[in-house]
Amino acid sequence: MAEIKECVSIVKNAIEDKKGSDIKILNISKLSPLADYFVLATGSNINQLHAMADEVTEKLYEVGVHPKQTEGYNTGNWILIDYGDFMVHLFLPESRDYYNLDRIWKDAVTE
């Protein structure tokens, strides 16, 4: 099984492969017991969000890492993939602006 930082790097690369934009890696380990990292990214449409989510899941599966839970895949404007120690948030632009996790977690270290 891959280490957390390696997994986060795999997530970033998978999102980049599917042309995701505004990718941010937030280290929230000192701010919350919820997770160590949030990975935030934006896709231009639902098909791109699905492609990004599928690529992330596939690439992590290849290294033996499986999601604990996935939310929003069928509804589509915000997909959350929970891996326990890190979470992947994939948004359509209007949902990213509305929920504004970047602002909520502004005290996180951006990596």
Can you offer a commentary on this structure?
The protein has 111 residues and is an alpha+beta fold. The protein has one domain: Beta Polymerase, domain 2 (2-Layer Sandwich). Helix content is 38%, strand content 26%. The chain is built from 4 helices and 6 strands; from the N terminus they run αββαβββααβ. It has helices at 4-17, 46-62, 93-99, 101-104, and strands spanning 21-27, 37-42, 69-71, 78-82, 86-91, 109-110. The protein has a 6-stranded mixed β-sheet. Strand 4 and strand 5 form a beta hairpin. The longest helix is centred in the middle third of the chain and has 17 residues, at 46-62. The chain is globular, with a radius of gyration of 13 Å. The chain starts with a helix and ends with a strand. The mean pLDDT is 95.
Summarize the biggest pleated sheet: 6 strands, mixed
Average pLDDT reading = 95
Please identify the structural class as seen in this structure. Answer: alpha+beta
Low-confidence stretches: none
Spatial strand arrangement across the major sheet: 3-4-5-2-1-6
CATH homologous superfamily caption: Beta Polymerase, domain 2
User: CATH fold name, please?
Assistant: Beta Polymerase, domain 2
How many alpha or pi helices? 4
Q: What is the element string, with H for helices and E for strands?
A: HEEHEEEHHE
The CATH class turns out to be Alpha Beta
Helical content, roughly? 25-40%
